[in-house]
Design brief:
The complex is a heterodimer of chains A (116) and B (114). Chain A is an all-beta fold. Chain A contains no helices and eleven strands.
């Protein structure tokens, strides 16, 4: 059965700290891994990773994928209170059905709290 | 462990057909959500509900309606399916509130409209 496991489930840090969020997966026919930030109603897209070893960066956030070891990490440097959110990892598996899209499997998320 | 189930994993419908997507959660959650996921666009919120018989439009409600007659069940309805509604539909639920409350997602329904 396909699964995505995120760790830790929750994390409390202080402003200025650097955090690393983990996402491991077991998925048949891996296509891509996606990171989302969930603050209010709908998760906000952060990164999509398809290739191993290529770091994607956006400001203080960065992410990398290891397709051999089947995991990804999301790093946040110099954390701010505005980074407090639930961070979701999702893996898209290739589907034979419908052509270009497959199944999307979500992890349970990591709840990050950044204290002033 | 929270379980969110969706009635179908795959559906094929024809243009103009009425389509029902069902979602059931077993943890007595107040909030339920319907999203669609398309390549390059991330998750987009269609509708959400914070209580029985209550609903609010999300970011892309056009062409969709919803029904929440019971707390555990949230239905998404496509009154007249169109090809641009071919997508992956994801249902989610959360206990209460909005901010930082974990949403639990179902397995998704892959809809193909011909």
């Amino acid at each position: 059965e396909d699964k995505v496991v995120q760790s830790p489930l929750s994390l409390v840090v202080h402003e200025g700290d650097t955090v690393t969020l983990n996402c491991s997966y077991e998925v048949t026919n891996f296509r891509s891994l996606l990171w989302y930030k969930q603050e209010k109603k709908a998760p906000t897209f952060l990164f999509m990773l398809t290739s191993s070893g290529i770091e994607k960066k956006s400001g203080r956030l960065s992410s990398i994928l290891d397709k051999k070891e089947l995991f990804s990490i999301l790093n946040i440097t110099a954390t701010q209170t505005g980074d407090s959110a639930v961070y979701l990892c999702a893996v898209e598996a290739r589907g034979n059905y419908g052509g270009s899209q497959g199944n999307l499997i979500f992890g349970k998320g990591t709840k990050l709290s950044v204290k002033p | 462990d929270v379980k969110v189930t969706q009635s179908s994993r795959y559906l094929v419908k024809r243009t103009g057909e009425k389509v029902f997507l069902e979602c059931v959660q077993d943890m007595d959650h107040e909030n339920m959500f319907w999203y669609r996921q398309d390549p390059g666009l991330g998750l987009r919120l269609i509708y959400f509900s914070y209580d029985v018989k209550m609903k609010e439009k999300g970011d892309i409600p056009e062409g969709y309606s919803v029904s929440r007659e019971k707390k555990e069940r949230f239905s998404l309805i496509l009154e007249s399916a169109s090809t641009n509604q071919t997508s992956m539909y994801l249902c989610a639920s959360s206990l209460r509130g909005w901010y930082q409350e974990t949403q639990y997602f179902g397995p998704g329904t892959r809809l193909l409209v011909l």
